[in-house]
Design goal:
Blueprint lengths: L7 H6 L21 H35 L3 H36 L3
Helix pairs in contact: 2-3
């Protein structure tokens, strides 16, 4: 019985046994059952996130105006924080595709 010793970099660079090609990691929602429904569900979840951020921004802005009118600086500061959180949430919900695409493309460049 003969045992072949192959270094790790050579084993990673070599093509798969049988002469096949390395599989492409291109996303394909049709490759799995229910992939399109999952994409629709994620689209609906991002819509709900944006609606929640808009509602949070409107509620925080109205509470801020009331706190300023009543001359309550501590409550006004808390409501400003609520508006900042709603804005960051909207930026994250809107930029999630670009963030995931950035890291996916970075991962494709790893060899």
């Amino acid at each position: 019985m003969t045992v072949a010793v192959v270094s790790a970099p050579a084993a990673l660079a070599a093509p798969p046994a049988g002469g096949g090609s390395v599989p492409s990691p291109t996303p394909n929602p049709g490759a799995v059952p229910g992939g399109q429904q999952l994409l629709n569900l994620l689209g609906g979840a991002s819509f709900v996130a944006v609606v929640a951020c808009v509602a949070g921004l409107l509620i925080s802005a109205s509470r801020h105006q009331i706190a300023v009118h009543q001359r309550q600086p501590d409550k006004a500061a808390h409501t400003l924080h609520g508006m900042q959180v709603a804005g960051m949430g909207a930026a994250a919900a809107g930029g999630v595709h670009a963030i995931v695409a950035f890291f996916f493309n970075t991962g494709l460049g790893i060899h």
